[in-house]
Amino acid sequence: MLRTKHAIEPLKRGRRSTAVAVPSSAVNSIDVVPPAPSERARRRRSEDAMSLRARVRRITATGGVLAACMGMMVAFAVPAQAAQTGVFDGQFAAHNRLLQQLEAQTLTTTNISAPLSVVRDGVKATSQEELDAAAEEKRLEQERAAEAERQAELANSASVASSDSGASSGSGGSSPATYAGPQSYSGGGVIGYASQFVGVVPYGTGNHPSDSFSCDGYTQYVFAGVGIYLPRGADAQGSMGTQISQSEAVAGDLVWWPGQHIGIYDGAGGMYDSPDWGRTVQHRQGSLWGSPVFVRL
Description:
By secondary structure, this protein is α+β, with helices and mostly antiparallel strands. The protein has helices at about 5-10, 40-105, 130-160, 185-195, 215-225, 235-240; strands at about 120, 125, 205-210, 210-215, 240-245, 255, 260-265, 270-275, 280-285, 295.
């Protein structure tokens, strides 16, 4: 025998019911009718429906607030964006105009390789070309001065050599001394011209009979009288000619002690020279010392 659900339900609710035995053959012929919902179930369903409607209303209200806020944000953001876009457009247009103006301009520069003339406080700076030109001019001026001095010495020697008269001797006498004119270049001519100053012209630093004779000043003056120019300085004069032995030397050759003294050889073992301070030009006959060098001009 089977118990139907309707027979069991009173037992769940605590009610006493008498079980009815229904034959199995009659089960299929019975219409099963679901029981009506209880009051508690209805209240629960009603509360669930109310809760659902409240949540829907809250969600709807919240969505409306959000929609309103979004609308306000869009309403404020769109004009601001439009205004900012307008500012950027204006700046971009001004920048483009400035670029167009710069492109239209022509920039002119000076040649930096050309020498610059700098002027400050009214004073012009000297360029390198001007400095070089000044240095070259100074060098040329020095050369011209040296040449003029040399020509003056030559002219002075020639004028003295061509003159028949001389100044007074350095011994303090007031009467003028008279000297013979220069001779042709020969040993005898040189000795004859040199001998007229013996005992007359004192030793000194000069190279003229009106003043004094140093050893090299004396030889320079005598040889200038026969047309031979010698520099100042005993060593410079000794280097001008050709060195020979004493056996080869003749009157009119030079007698030279390198670094010390120089004179004119007389051809007989002596010489004419201007010796030292306090003495005059002299003829040293057979009086040579040491190992002199003989030079032929």
